[in-house]
Every structure is written in structure tokens, then in C-alpha cells.
Design a protein that fits this description.
heterodimer; A: 295 residues; alpha+beta; Thrombin, subunit H; six-stranded antiparallel barrel; six-stranded antiparallel beta barrel; 24% strand; B: 105 residues; mainly alpha; 65% helix
Chain lengths: 295, 105
């Protein structure tokens, strides 16, 4: 006698629930996912590169009228930056010399592992890269671009692949601070004492190393948005200032570039200010990423 | 049977496209609900199929399976959603709609 329809439905749903239980509670789903990532990775890489090129092509067409002005602005900015780099190189040499003289340890360079992006996770703000636990990657390692721009941290590892949680992911939060503006290297006679507060606003700031950094929490808002929160209300924050990681919290190494301030929100009822940060990295341009394995 | 295999291959390519190619374009295209390309495909497949056939449900299962592999949520999330949608469409078609289904399938 043929079993009635409701019986069949019951069996099927029990089987489904059992399947889900097994897959979620054991590590079996990770094996399956790893297998699928492995076989899809060459195709995904091709798609990613083709996508990049196509999108660049279309962007080139739609942006033509802005390109010339952007080009000129960028050339100017490059000149300014080159001057700054030259003066910073001198400071770096001085710093290393002084460290050796005082016998403080030299700053260690990061150990980096190179990986390629193969795709993005469907739940958004998570990237899939082609290095995994077999290559020495563990959870929570920071991920940066070649230019030392912060991209995110490893959120899950499989055998041959890992997932990178971008800093724009809703669950990502870390400490950041506003980089010093108009950096003037302090002259040797004016080394500032620790913790000396600067009175007055930004305009009356004396040149030198007296800038007190503005610290806050950088939180992801999903969909490639980034917010800078818990900022003290008495400090003025301007658009275009750069945000870098601070050493508080130990989540990321300090000094990595995060983004630039886009919009500042100040309200009388809130105890803190808030700002939106424009991330410097562009998800569409990411291809090669570095994973920091020691810090 | 052959039809199901072809569709599974099609879905696999759709998922790869969604995670690697469409990301470079508009956020809307890359799916405001994860694998919306596959969602649309399942919707139309079940719409145009005869309500007695079960292959639409199998395809919903496999589509959901592929989406789950590439997403970070609990495994089974997309499988459940897609199967519920497929069953729902078939249910509505069977009970309330008299439009003829496309004979090609």
C-alpha cells in the first residue's frame, strides 16, 4: 500500500533536519566547503579578473570627464607626499640610530604571507582567499594590501582557504586614531613631555610634536560602510583626515591606514561624536593581499 | 534526470558568477539578498513547471545547497528558504491559478 503523502513529507523533513544537524554540529560542513572552494577556485579567479577588467572598462567610460581633474589633483598630491616622505626618511634613520644607541629593540618587520582573492562570500563583507590552515594561517590574523592598508582579519580557516572579515563587516570593531596633521618633526630641543594637553583649538596649535591623537572605535556598518564612534566631543574633526589603527586593544598592529573621514555627525544630545569613514581600499581592486602572521 | 543535472551545473556557474564576477559591479546586481540570481531562477523554474512534477523542489534543494556552501550563515539556511519558496509557489499554482504551464518543460 502506498504510504500517504503526509507520511512521505514527514520522512523527508526528518531526513533534512538530520542532515542539517550533522552538517552544522560536526566539522563535516567545513570539509565540504573546502572541497567546493578547491574545485571552484580556478574558475573564480578567472571570473574575478574578468570582472575587474570589465568594471574598470565601464568605469573608465563613465568617469572620463572627471579623470582629467582627478589626474591633476593626484599629481599635486604626489608631489606633496614625496616631500613629506623625504623628511620622514631622515626621521626614520634618526629613530633607528637612537634605538640602537639606547639599546632598545629595533621595530620588527611583519612576517607576511601572500594570498589571492578568489571571491566574496554571499553574506557580504567577507572575502575568500586561497591560503588556509595548511599555509600557516590562523584565525584573527590581520590582512592588509601591498600598501599597508588595513583590509580586515581572518575570520575562519579551512584547509586550503580562509575567509577574511572586512573591516566594513558589521561585526568588526577595533581602535583607531586620527593621524597627525601637518607633521612637523620636533626639533631636538623641544621633545614634548608625555601627556601634555594642548589648550585651544586646532588653529592655535604650536608646531611640533604636541598633537594629542583623537582616539575612537572604528566599527563596520555593512555594505562597505565604516563608522568612527565614541569620539570625544570637545575635539574638532575635519573631513579628509586620515584614520590609522592605534595600538589599543591589540586587535591590529598600530600604524595601518584605515580610511579618511567623510562626514562628521555631532549632536547635542549624544555624549560622543560620530563620523563616517571612507575606506581607502576598493573591494573591486583587491587581488593580492598580505596576511600578517606575527605582531 | 538530465534536466536536473543541466540545471545544477547552471546554478553552480551562477553562484560562481555571483561571488566573483558580479561583486565588481553595482551592489544591486551582486544581490541584496545573497544569491538573488539563483532565487530568481528557482522562482521562475517552479512557476513554469507542471505542479505535479517534483524536479522544481530538487532544484530548490540543490540551489540552496550551493548557496550555503558559499555563505557564512548556518548551513541549511538557503536550502530551507528556497525549498519553502518552491513549495509555496507550487501550492499557490495548484490551488488558485488556472494558467497553462509552458509545455516545453
Amino acid at each position: 500500500m502506498k504510504p500517504p503523502l503526509s507520511f512521505k513529507i514527514g520522512i523527508i523533513s526528518v531526513l533534512l533536519v538530520a542532515l542539517f544537524a550533522v552538517l552544522n554540529l560536526t566539522g563535516f560542513s567545513k570539509e565540504i566547503k573546502n572541497f567546493f572552494y578547491l574545485i571552484s577556485s580556478p574558475i573564480q579567479k578567472i571570473f574575478w579578473e574578468v570582472g575587474e577588467r570589465t568594471s574598470n572598462f565601464f568605469e573608465g567610460i563613465s568617469e572620463t570627464k572627471n579623470l582629467k581633474k582627478e589626474n591633476e589633483d593626484l599629481k599635486l598630491k604626489i608631489q606633496e607626499l614625496e616631500v613629506e616622505i623625504a623628511s620622514l626618511k631622515e626621521t626614520k634613520k634618526e629613530n633607528e640610530f637612537l634605538r640602537k644607541a639606547l639599546e632598545i629593540d629595533l621595530k620588527k618587520d611583519f612576517n607576511l604571507v601572500l594570498a589571492e582573492v578568489t571571491g566574496e562570500d554571499l553574506s557580504g563583507d567577507i572575502l575568500i582567499i586561497n591560503k588556509g590552515s595548511r599555509d600557516g594561517i590562523s584565525k584573527d590574523f590581520p590582512v592588509i594590501t601591498e600598501q599597508k592598508i588595513l583590509v580586515g582579519k581572518i575570520s575562519q580557516t579551512y584547509d586550503n582557504f580562509s575567509k577574511v572579515m572586512l573591516i566594513t563587516n558589521k561585526e568588526s570593531a577595533f581602535n583607531g586614531k586620527i593621524e597627525e596633521r601637518d607633521y612637523n618633526p620636533p626639533t631636538t630641543s623641544e621633545v614634548p613631555a608625555e601627556g601634555r594637553r594642548v589648550e585651544g583649538g586646532l588653529e592655535s596649535q604650536p608646531p611640533g610634536g604636541d598633537w594629542v591623537p583623537i582616539e575612537g572605535v572604528v566599527k563596520g556598518g555593512g555594505n562597505f560602510k565604516l563608522y568612527f564612534e565614541l569620539l570625544p566631543k570637545d575635539k574638532e574633526i575635519k573631513e579628509g583626515e586620515s584614520v590609522i589603527t592605534s595600538s589599543l586593544g591589540g586587535i591590529f598592529p598600530k600604524g595601518l591606514l584605515v580610511g579618511k573621514i567623510k562626514e562628521v555627525k555631532k549632536s547635542d544630545v549624544e555624549p560622543f561624536q560620530q563620523a563616517e569613514i571612507l575606506p581607502i581600499f576598493d573591494i573591486k581592486e583587491l587581488k593580492n593581499l598580505f596576511i600578517i602572521t606575527n605582531f | 534526470m538530465k534536466k536536473i543535472f543541466i540545471f545544477i551545473l547552471f546554478f553552480y556557474i551562477l553562484v560562481l558568477l555571483q561571488t566573483s564576477f558580479l561583486i565588481h559591479f553595482n551592489i544591486f546586481l551582486s544581490g541584496f539578498l545573497g544569491g538573488s540570481l539563483i532565487l530568481i531562477a528557482i522562482f521562475f523554474i517552479n512557476l513554469f513547471e507542471k505542479t505535479e512534477e517534483k524536479s522544481g523542489l530538487f532544484l530548490a534543494f540543490f540551489g540552496g545547497f550551493l548557496l550555503d556552501i558559499f555563505s557564512e550563515n548556518l548551513f541549511g539556511f538557503y536550502i530551507l528558504i528556497l525549498m519553502v519558496i518552491a513549495i509555496f509557489i507550487k501550492f499557490i499554482l495548484k490551488r488558485y491559478v488556472r494558467a497553462p504551464s509552458i509545455k516545453r518543460f
